[in-house]
Amino acid sequence: MKRTVSLILSIMMLLWCLPIASAESDMYKRVTARFTGQLEQGVTIKVLENATAIELGYADELIAAFNAAYADKGIRAELMDIDQYSDLATDGPYGYGPDVWYQANDILMKYATKQHLLPLPVYGLESWELIPENAWNAYKMTMYDEDFYCGIPLNVQSGMMFYIESMLPDNWETEWDINQNGTPDFFETYTALYALSADIQQNGGKTKYGYLDDLVDVYFCVGYMLSGGAYVFGDNNTDPADIGLNKGDAAKGANMLRQWADLMNNTEVLDGAFASAAYGYLADGTMLCTVTTPDVRAMFIRAMVNTGKWTKEEAEADLKMINVPRLPVSLDLTADNWQDTITQMDTLTMQTKMMGGINGYGISAYTKCPNASLAFIQFAASYEQIIARNKALGISPARSDAAETIGATDPNVALIFSNLDTGYIDVMPAINEVAQIWTPGQSFLIDLCTDAFRAERGEEELYADLEDIQKGLDRMVQQILDAIFTLS
Amino acid sequence: MAQARLKETQAKENIFFYRLMQALAKIWKAPWQVKASVLVMGLGQICYGQIIKGLIYLACLAGLIWYFVTTGAADFIGFFTLGTQQEDLWLGIPGDNSMNMLILGIFAIVIGLFGILLWITNMKDCLFTAEEVKAGRKPRSFRETLRHMADDKFHVTALTLPMVGVTIFSVLPIVFMILIAFTNLGGDVVYPKLADWSFDAWSKLLNVDKLSGTFGKILSWNVLWAISTTLINFLGGLGLALLLNKPNVKGKKIWRAFPILAYAIPGFISMLGFKFMFSQSGPINSMLTSAGHDAIFFLTNDASAKWWARGIGLFVNAWIAIPSLMLMMTGYLGNINTDMYEAAELDGASKFQQFRKITLPFVIFSTTPVLIGQFVGNFNNFGIFFFMRSGVISNYGDYFLASDTDLLINWLYNLSVDNNYYSVGAAISLIIFMITSTVSLAVYVRSNAYKQEDTYQ
Amino acid sequence: MMTIQAREGHTAPTNESQRSRWPSVASAAKRGDGRRWKKYTLRRFADDAFTYTTLIIVSLIFVFPCLWLVLASFSKSGSLYDMRGFFPAEYSAQTFVELFTDDVNGLYPYKKWFMNTLYVSSMSCIFGTILVILTGYVMSKFNFKGRNGVKKLTLVLGMFPGFMGMTAIYIIMAQLNLLNRLEALIFLYSATAPMGYLVQKGYFDSIPNNIQDAARIDGASNLQIFWKITMPLSKPMLVYTALTQFAWPWSDCLLPKLILKSRDQWTVAVGLYSMPETHFSRFAAGSVFIAVPIVILYFFLVKHIVSGLTAGAVKG
């Protein structure tokens, strides 16, 4: 809707040379008044990038490129060397916060709702048209009864399946590709992946495990519930009083996690630290595949190079990142014959919904140079820089033109982009209360997934059937509500 | 008893009133220079020819006036209002920051009190000079004043700097914290929103079941933790000291080096190291699994980790604290008069009897204050579970924003630092303060060490 | 101020009795030497066996984690998860070299952290020691109005859970324009040091008053008595105080984390705390490097530590 309006507006502007702001509300004009377009002279923009981008050197490249491009305009940027999870609410008022901050949308929006980030004059930006609405919504918030956008989406974060091609079972082309499409069947449906993992764990193989993953990370695991029809917050993720994580077939979705936990039978997957162990485990052959976000691709590469078995170039070629497999419609990993899920893929399986995040840039409300900061963001979000960021970090862009270019050679980027556009990536809510879902959620997942060990310890299983799981989900939702409303 | 105390305070009040009247009368009768000093700090001194001292007093007065005119008076008012104009960061409307106003208000009050104190000393000083002059002596020169401060008033001079430092960096923050408990700061009410004075936090603590329930559970574990760590560390330290004190131990220095090593390593390194060691993918679990045993949930999220994690907490705390106690005990044991053992041996007392009748009473007697310190320190032992289990949330359902190993102080941290519930956190810390101070005072007053000091003074 | 464990060990309040334990701590071992067994009996053998077994076990418990950390710091691959079992698969001193040469694009500038820590610790050590010693001395040797009030007040203040004041300290530092400055830490550590004056007071209590009185009769001023008479007698206490004042900033993590923003300004403790598991051997190497100086200090000064820890103890 907004996009059409602004499209029409820009045509109008072209035709009659009217300022674009003419149809923008008074409030919008007032809050974006400081974005005059006049670059502040002689300022240095303090940029806070994320640790991975710094560690892998991209952040320095970006700053250097910006400073070269703006050398004659009297502004320059520099990296801030404070922690990437700076607390803008305490640092900002005293002048120690960044001007420009790259973070995930939930973190940025936590500060935006308290006005610590500025609303941006998005309608005039080049990327307004190029970024899908779902991504913009990650930065949308309501203030003075009106919608504002407090960040510019850069890249889409969502779970992707990582594996090393040379570690695939030797027989995959004969045994595990019955539809002959060149993609191993076990990366096409979770039912097949479950069957393969069970096979590897029983009969051995090149790797010790098939699929191994952190089963207590709400961000990744909630996808199973979302695919079953659950949702995070009602009213398009804006109503904190309506929590839908126990709605629909959420219990069936959660039960699949239990099935995985039973199969994996590994206590490490119950620890959040698994995420950082995963790089090494994939490289050393502990597991065949795992799900994580695209921006850590380089960490896998480094772990592979560290083993001494790959050179950097070999590792780049050997490490694959693909879309997560499809989930069975039955929401049960063992109900169907895995071969059937391949041959009758359309009827027996559905595309998996994943929770996703949109990383992007916001501008601090305490900045002395809003216009220069905006210039920096526009530079960093430009087509060239997005391509460069993808090369360095493997991110999936939120810009359609960049996604198209990269997508031409890397089908996954195109896939992520279309998942975002079609809603299979459920973007983290932009409201403050989202901060309260992680802990109760994790607590439930832990409880659910440790059931596998309760039997071994001779204790009673707590989540033996779907009814128990539903009760567990209800409890979790109640805890989230408690956390949100008890002290407010 | 109570009546006696009442009488005492009444007497004290009377004395105070009496003294005040006396002082006023003195000033009334004093020469005009003193009265000048009452009006303008330092004026009297200048009139007596003590130019430098007078100028210093005058400068202080000027500084005080300048401070109160520029910011102090506004800060003082801000202390009561906690802000009147809310800031709008988007529209660029400037406004007040309640938390800053609270602390600046306290600061203004402290400066005000300091000013009054200075004013009183100024009058006293002038009165003193007036009496000197009356007695026919010359007013002190500046050099004499300096000498006087380094000698007769040495304690005042020496304590000034420590007092100022402690006031700003210890007292002020604590007063701030106490006052926060009586505002509605926290949760939604954080900058740029304005706060107000209220009893909100206390009524929430009493009325919200989740809070009071969690408080009870954490408190009982906290008490258990404080008692058991104190006992373990005390017995461990004593045992180790006794062991190393045994006559048949050769190479005492070498044996003692190992605990000292543990003592010297910065605490947070030990804690983080143990966290890695017991982590789910850490060495202990990987040894267990490669030996065919199931991995154990030591510190992880699982509900079964509750007692493992608590046990590991006790162990790590002992590992860190026992060496220092051992050194201390070694020192104490060296203080015991050896004649007593020889006498006991002659009387045919066994080793164990000697330990029970001589060593233990003596050690307990001399370490009571240390034990109290240990108890309070352990009760508020923030580091252990912060470093070893932060981010871990076993048995979350039973607790509100806490984990089953968290002590009150960790819960406090979760509430006030991680979740911005400042006023509730402050209220809880006041309760913690009441508990620890009551317990330690009760123990201390009963202890021999206190009684002995009483008899000494 | 902070009630974290690391500090707690050093500032155990001591008893305030004034019996003389001056001038030196009797060696605990002396007593034992007088009572040797005459013959090597079975009982003595059992005793020896028990004693040494326990000693070995205890020593292992204490030394093993340290050894583990030291060996891990020499691990060739960085991550904790590359070690199967307790020990690294391959050893190399690479991590130590990297610790100082490769700061991972400014993420882990260990050299800078180390110098910061050294600066903060030594400065706080100097100022903190002066303030504590002064406070302890005055509180021990002077009887002035309000002394008891001060004593009680410090006791009460010590009971407050310290870090609740952290929000206030943050704001105060912001008002003083000291955020993100190492000097803020020096101020804080030195200024709050006098709160732990009881140990020093206990020590001065044990110096007999008649030394002072004699000097007083000879016409020495209080300043002279403090400086020329008491200080030379207080070497063990000075050393102990300086050591604890040095060790606290050296290993404190919370306050620097609160006040220091830029990675460049961090102290080692904050830096190590921020390191993820994937940089485990870097963490281990950093820990070893920061622990070694303090361990050496402790070993050299162990005698003074004992006398400090037992300052003001009762003689039996």
Quick summary:
The complex is a heterotrimer of chains A (488), B (457) and C (316). Chain B is mostly helical. Chain B has 19 helices and no strands.
List keywords for this structure.
heterotrimer, A: 488 residues, alpha/beta, 7-stranded mixed sheet, 4-stranded mixed sheet, 16 strands, C: mainly alpha, MetI-like fold, 64% helix
Describe this structure in words.
The complex is a heterotrimer of chains A (488), B (457) and C (316). Chain A has 488 residues and is of the alpha/beta class. Chain A has a domain at 39-156 and 356-430: Periplasmic binding protein-like II (D-Maltodextrin-Binding Protein, domain 2), CATH 3.40.190. Chain A has 25 helices and 16 strands. In chain A, strands 1, 2, 3, 6, 14, 15 and 16 form a 7-stranded mixed β-sheet that branches. A 4-stranded mixed β-sheet of chain A has the order 8-10-7-11. Chain A has a two-stranded antiparallel sheet with strand order 4-5. In chain A, a hairpin with a 2-residue loop joins strand 4 (140-143) and strand 5 (146-149). The longest helix of chain A has 20 residues, at 466-485. Chain A starts with a helix and ends with a helix. Residues 14-22 of chain A have low confidence and may be disordered. Chain B has 457 residues and is an all-alpha fold. Chain B folds into 2 domains: 14-189, no CATH class; 204-456, MetI-like fold, CATH 1.10.3720.10. Helices cover 75% and strands 0% of the residues of chain B. The radius of gyration of chain B is 30 Å and the shape is globular. By secondary structure, chain C is an all-alpha fold. Chain C has one domain: MetI-like (MetI-like fold). Chain C is 64% helix and 0% strand. Chain C contains 16 helices and no strands. In chain C, helix 5 (110-141) packs parallel to helix 8 and helix 5 crosses helix 12. Residues 1-34 of chain C have low confidence and may be disordered. The chains are: A alpha/beta (488), B mainly alpha (457), C mainly alpha (316). Chains in contact: A-B, A-C, B-C. Chains B and C meet through helix 5, helix 7, helix 9, helix 10 and helix 11 of B and helix 1, helix 2, helix 3, helix 5 and helix 6 of C.
